Structure formats: structure tokens, C-alpha cells
Amino acid sequence: MGRAGGTPLTAVMRLVPRTLRGRLTLTLIAGLAGVLAVSVVLSTVILFGDTGGRFSRPLARQVAVVVDAVEAVSPEERERVLRSLERIDLRGTVVDRPPPWLVHSDHHIDERIEEALRDIFAAGRGVLIGRARPGEGPPGIIAAIELSDGPWLMLNYAGEEPFVRGALSLVALIAGIGGGTLLLATWAARRATRPLKDLAGAAERLGENLNAPPMDDGAGPAEIRTAAATFNAMQQRLQRFVRERMHMIAAAGHDLRTPITRLRLRAEFIEDAALQGKIMADLKDMEAVIDGTIALVREELSEEDFVPVDLARLIPSAVAGYRDLGQDVALAGDPDAGPVTVAGRPEALRRTIGNLIDNAVRYGGRARVTWRAEGGQAVVTVEDDGPGIPEADRTRVLDPFVRLETSRSRETGGSGLGLAIVKSIVASHNGRLELANRDEGGLRVTVTLPLAATGAQPRSG
Predict the structure, then answer these.
(1) Percentage of the chain surpassing pLDDT 90?
(2) If you write DSSP's letter for every residue of 355-406 in order, what string do you get?
(3) Parallel, antiparallel, or unpaired: how do β-strands 127-132 and 142-146 relate?
(4) Alpha-carbon Rg for the chain in angstroms
(5) Nearest one of 395, 392, 405, 388 to 440, comparing CA atoms
(6) How far from chain centre, in Å, is Cα 132?
(7) At what angle do helices 273-300 and 418-428 cross, to 10 degrees?
(8) Residue 137 CA, distance from chain mean position
């Protein structure tokens, strides 16, 4: 028995679109194709089957009218009457007898025309509906009718045959309807699935930023509005849940300061200097973790308003503070190049730049800060000359309390919350945070934020 993956059904299923929009469009197109196929079959039966004499009877009556008109005039005036027939795509000639190249046609339409003419004219009058042999006469239907005075009138349709004109018109109509319906089906499928795409985008934004803008629950069908309202309610519950937990963590952090202070006072009375130093170092680490945790909680609970912030002024101001402390921090941006304005929280953005410079100086010895506007985005980079971060650890190092042994130690300090705070701030500004090792050595941290003129306005937490 062969594997299921090799069955013809599986091969067909691979051709089915994977997206809901594609499947809905395919369903509409398949239904449309079925309707058009049935329409074509029925139209073919009607056209080429001459149902109810749809084409044969009117044509036979037209021939009878011409015959009556020709018989009503003298033989000398018949040429003038026949020339007037060219206005209705008829060519007529009067001959002694039908030419030998005119043969009787067994075409269904031709037979129905001949039957209709025999019903119109009296018995005994010669009637022949046929076609010319290829290359010997004009194309199309040729009607040969015996006149009352002996000669024969031959009528040839110079234009398209009536049923051919009808068929072409019907095909054009079906093609127009099919093309229009196809465009309408594609548009309807795209419009029907757009709310689902919006819902997926909102869920992705919520995963990156709990304070992301809510969905619009006032537009669209009732089901979509209900789904959007439910999603917004879920987001609000998550925000309340996280806010309550953050308040608990902040309160616990504040409460821990008192026992740590008591422990530090008691450690002052320890006579063993080595033991005293170890205890003091542990207490210092605990304070660093608590301070970092409280800072992270404050960032998550921050209600600072979003305002226009010019990074071309904020960054040099932040760098100047480090230089005043004797830190090796280089500024590569051009303050005179013009404003680079984003919609953001000034203190949070200042904390972001400060944390990145702290990390660069602490673990890389120096920091180089650049900024620029590019493609509707503000791009800020901070580089150092440290050991960098292995690619496998670049995602993990952004998590709270993660410290890499290769770059962080008791001598360098750090609570493992600096980059976590930066990640939280950047996400709340609808930005991106990227870490990469430089080819010449060291780490490059890139922060990308939407410019105020083109970026969507973030929500304040």
C-alpha cells in the first residue's frame, strides 16, 4: 500500500490555496464556472438546435418577402430590386436554373429553413437550400427559389449567418458577465477576509505590546464587531491582570529595601573582613535586582504621555551627561543635520539611550552613538568594542534577569534587566530592537522607531 502523501487526492489538495481568501475566491470561481458551463450548454442547444424555429422561421419569412417583391415587378426592374437587398446583407441574382456547384445541405439549420419555405410556398414550387462547393461559389447559406414565371431567384447571405451572430453575442455576454463576476468575487473575498487579517495583526501587536492600540469595534458586520469588542475586552482584562501583578512586584520590591538595609547595618559589625565583603557584595546585587525590577515595573505602568521628541536633541543631551562623568562615549550623529522627531515618551526614550550606553561602556569599554532618519524611520545605533553576544543568546538576553557569563560578572555588575527595559520601551513605541555583532568586533544595538510624520501614534500605558 502506497503512502497517503502520494495519492492523487493529496496532490490535488496541494493545489488548494492555504489562505481563507484564496479558498473563498476559488469556491466563488468554481461556482461561477459551473453556472457558466450550464449556460453555455443550454445556449448551444438553443442556438444550434434552432429550438422552436428561432432562426429558421424568420429567415424563411424574409426570403418569402423578397420573392414576392421580385415577382411583383417586371423582369427589367428586378435588377434594381436585387441591388437594394445589399442593404440587408443579401445578394440576389436571377438564373435559369440552380448552378451545379450548389448542392443540397444536410445542415440542421438549412433543413429547417427549407421546411419553413415549403410550408410558405405552394406545392410544386422549386425550393433548394444549400451551400456552394468549396472554391466554386460564395460562402454561407444560399437559397434558390423558383419564380412563378420560370427562372430561379438565388439569395446569398453576404454577412454572418444569423445564428452565428447570436452565438457570438451570447459568448461576448457570458464572457462579460464572467469577467465582472470574477472581479466581484475576488473583491468580495478580500473584503470578507480583511477583518480576519486585522484580527491576526491585532493579536500579533498585543503579543509584542500589551498597550497596543485596540481594534476598531464600530465597523463591519455584526459578527466582526462582536469579535473586535471581545478582543478588546480580553486585552483590557490582560492589562488589568498585568497591572495588578506589577503593583504587587513593585510593592514587594519596596518592602525588601528595609530588611536589606537592616542586613547591611548588621554586616558592619562583622569582624571578618572577607566575610563582610562577600555579604556586602551580595546585598549590593540584591539591591541592583530590586532597583531594576522596580524600574521595569514603572516602565510597564508608566502613564507618561506621548509627545513629539527630537532625537537629534535628546541623544546629544544624554551623551553629554556621560562625558561629564569621564565615560568614553562618542557621538557620531550630526546635530546640525535637522530634527529626527518621533512620537514618544521623553523620559522613557532617555532611559532607553542611557541603558544602551551603560551596557556598551560596562561590557565594551566605550560607546559610539549614531542616529539618522531613513525611509520614514528613526534609526539609532549604539556600538561597543566588547566580546559581542553569540547569535544563539541574542533573543534570550532580552529576557528579564538574564546575564551572560561571557560578558557579565560580579566585577561588571548588572541585574540582567537593562535590555529587558529597553525592549519594553521600544515595543511600547511600535519600534524594533535588533542585536548584531560587528565584523571588527563588539556589539551593535539598533533601535528603529517610526517618525512622527509617518508612524502610527502609540498608546500611552
Answers:
(1) 9
(2) HHHHHHHHHHS-EEEEEEEETTEEEEEEE--S----GGGTTGGGSTT---TT
(3) antiparallel
(4) 44
(5) 388
(6) 59
(7) 10
(8) 60
